[in-house]
Design a protein that fits this description.
Layout lengths: L10 H4 L3 H7 L4 E5 L4 E3 L7 E5 L3 E7 L5 E7 L8 H4 L7 E6 L1 E7 H9 L2 H27 L2 H14 L5 E3 L2 H8 L3 H13 L3 E4 L2 E4 L2 H7 L2 H13 L7
Antiparallel strand pairs: 1-7, 2-6, 3-7, 4-5, 4-6, 8-10, 9-10
Helix pairs in contact: 5-10, 6-9, 7-8
Length: about 240
């Protein structure tokens, strides 16, 4: 059994071979990830990468007028800060905690050194990057071609996949900002899902009550993203 909030609760860390995991373990620092905290800002230097365990981080693109849209979500399946090992060092997106919890951080210098050695860790991080790019691309497609209700279903499923709970703490206004749509559209969509018994929404908390029906209602984008993550990132438990 893993200890509460152990590094192995992060699936990316858990998928590492035991030798790689044990080598990283002394360098992994537990950190609280508080709601609304900016893990990094657009164009800012990134001194660490983060491995969420019980939290979700949104990758956002912020426009000049202050409006924003989510391009990906990262939870216990992955890590925040791929620019560090991809050679870019910074990124035009912003990373903000959307669901509070915990995680682990690793110094950029340690990750770069490990990545430069090649081997299993490098291959795993590159596969994760491909999966994340798929999520970003599918989000763009979904936002262009599917209804707000379908986008909301996709967002809910992707979010609870990255938590150990079926409940999210999230206002409709924040969801609208994430999806880049009007709040009224989210209110109407959430109302329809609640009336159908798929979710319950009250005082900033959303509970998924009927996941199979939610999956039946979502557009194809969710399945595309999930299949790619499952294909590229086999689940394992670090020893």
């Amino acid at each position: 059994m893993l200890a509460p909030n152990a590094p192995g609760q992060n699936q990316l860390l858990a998928a590492l071979p035991a030798a790689d995991y044990e080598r990283l373990l002394p360098h992994l620092e537990p950190v609280p990830l508080d709601l609304g905290w900016a893990v990094y800002e657009a164009g800012g230097q990134q001194g660490y990468v983060y491995f969420p365990t019980t939290s979700i981080v949104s990758l956002l693109y912020v426009m000049q007028d202050g409006s924003s849209a989510e391009i990906a979500v990262v939870g216990n399946e992955g890590m925040v800060g791929i620019a560090l090992f991809m050679g870019g060092e910074t990124t035009p997106s912003r990373a903000v905690v959307q669901s509070a919890g915990h995680g682990y951080r690793l110094r950029a210098s340690v990750l770069k050194s490990e990545f430069a050695q090649g081997g299993d860790l490098q291959h795993l991080l590159l596969r994760y990057t491909q999966a994340l790019i798929t999520q970003m691309a599918q989000t763009a497609v979904c936002n262009r071609h599917h209804s707000v209700e379908q986008q909301l279903c996709r967002w809910l499923l992707l979010s609870i996949d990255r938590l150990s709970s079926n409940e999210l703490t999230m206002t409709q206004e924040l969801i609208a900002n994430m999806l880049g749509v009007r709040r009224e559209g989210v209110t109407e969509a959430a109302g329809r899902l609640q009336a159908a018994g798929l979710i319950h929404y009250s005082r900033g908390k959303i509970s998924v009550l009927d996941r199979p029906k939610l999956e039946a209602r979502v557009c194809e984008c969710y399945a595309v993203v999930k299949r790619e993550y499952d294909r590229l990132l086999p689940k394992a438990i670090a020893s």
